[in-house]
Structure formats: C-alpha cells, structure tokens
Amino acid sequence: GDLARMRSGFAVLEAEYQNLANKTGLPVDRYETVGAMHAIAIENFIDGKNPDAAAAWLDANKGSMSREQIRKARELIKAGKTTARADELAPKMIHAYGDSRAELLKKVQGIEDEELREKVERRVRKQLAAEDQIKKAELKEATDQYWQFVDNDEEPPDSLIAQIKELDPGKWRQLRKAQRHTESDPKVLEDL
To answer: Residue 96 and residue 107: Cα distance in Å, rounded?
Structure first.
C-alpha cells in the first residue's frame, strides 16, 4: 500500500536526481537531497506511531543518508519505541494495579528506564485524573439527586445511597449528618 508507493516515489526521485546529475555533469549531494527525504519519511513514521516501520526504512535506506542523519534517525526511532512501549505499558499497569493507587505509582516508579518511566507516569497520572473527574461528576450528580429526594420529603432509593457510599463514604456521612440537622433546623439546607 502506502509503503510500496513511498518506495516507488523515492526510486523515481533518485532516478530524477541521477538524470539531473547526468545532464549537468555536476554530482548530486545525495545526503542533502535523498538523505533529507529519507529523514523526513522516518519522522513521519515516528509521528504516525510506527517506530518499527521507521527502523525498517532506516535499514533499507541508510546508504543514502549522512552519519548525522542516521544518528538523528536512530535517536528518533529509540524515542518512538519508548513512546510505543509506554502506550502499551500504562494501560496494562492501570488494569493490574488500579485498585491501589499507591501500589500502581510504586510500580511505575520501579521502571528502571528513566524515559520510559516518565512517559508511563504521565499516561498513568492523566488516566487517574480523568477517572477522578468522572468520579467527582458522578458524586455531584448523586448528591444533587439525594437532596431532591430529601427536599421532597421522600426517602432516597437504596441504589442511590449505595452509589454515594461507594464513591465517597465521607460524603455519605456528611449528607446523613446534614439531613439529621435539617430535620430539626431547615436553615442548614441553605448553607449546603
């Protein structure tokens, strides 16, 4: 597919550069022309989250690239592989240790490769923050529903109470305490 078209395009490009060199009698600087194009192709593979394709492209085309281009490409491929590994590892760690945030973060800190550890930690913390936001929104909605029942002198359903207790046991205790006070002093509701 796309890889075959890219190879074909590069073959045409190299042939055109060779034709130009033949016509002008001047050599074409392969590193500045074709090598630079190969470097861009490798960057595109990395940006497309395909470090293995970037490595294969480098192996197939390093003869047209300068040492500096090859060095930069190898660094980019290494970074791309680290990113891919972090993308793979973070969800697995969250799944395995997500019940205990302390254990999860301890396991993340145990990753020896510093770059990988930093990338995994960023992904884990981002996921945990997203989960916290969802939990906070669910708790607010459940609390609002709870007070609607109380305001209408209705008993909140057991499923709603169970949800609040699960989301935040401390919040449940606050609600019960506030409800007891409101039964004797309606002014308390205004403060909540």
So the answer is: 10
Per-residue pLDDT at 23: 79
Distances (CA, A) of 31 to 62, 149, 167: 10, 74, 60
Measure Cα distances from 46 to 26, 78, 133 in Å: 34, 10, 31
Question: C-alpha distances in angstroms, 39 versus 6, 125, 177?
Answer: 13, 33, 66
Q: Which residue has the tokens 């491929």?
A: 77
Query: Which DSSP symbol is given to 113?
Result: S
Stronger pLDDT, 46 or 182, i.e. the higher one:
46
| 49-84 b/e (C-beta count within 10 Å ≥ 16 → b) | ebbebbbebbeebbebbbeebbeebeebbeebbbbb
What span, in angstroms and rounded, lies between the C-alpha atoms of 87 and 80?
10
Q: Of the candidates 135, 111, 141, which has an alpha carbon nearest to the alpha carbon of residue 123?
A: 111
Widest CA span in the chain: 100
This prediction has a pTM of 0.67
Mean pLDDT (whole number) for 113-117: 96
Q: In the structure, what pLDDT confidence band is assigned to residue 125 with cuts at 50, 70 and 90?
A: very high
Reported as a single tens digit per residue, the pLDDT across 132-164 is 999 999 999 999 999 999 889 899 999 999 999
CA 172 to chain centre: 34
C-beta separation of 117 from 111 below 8 A: yes
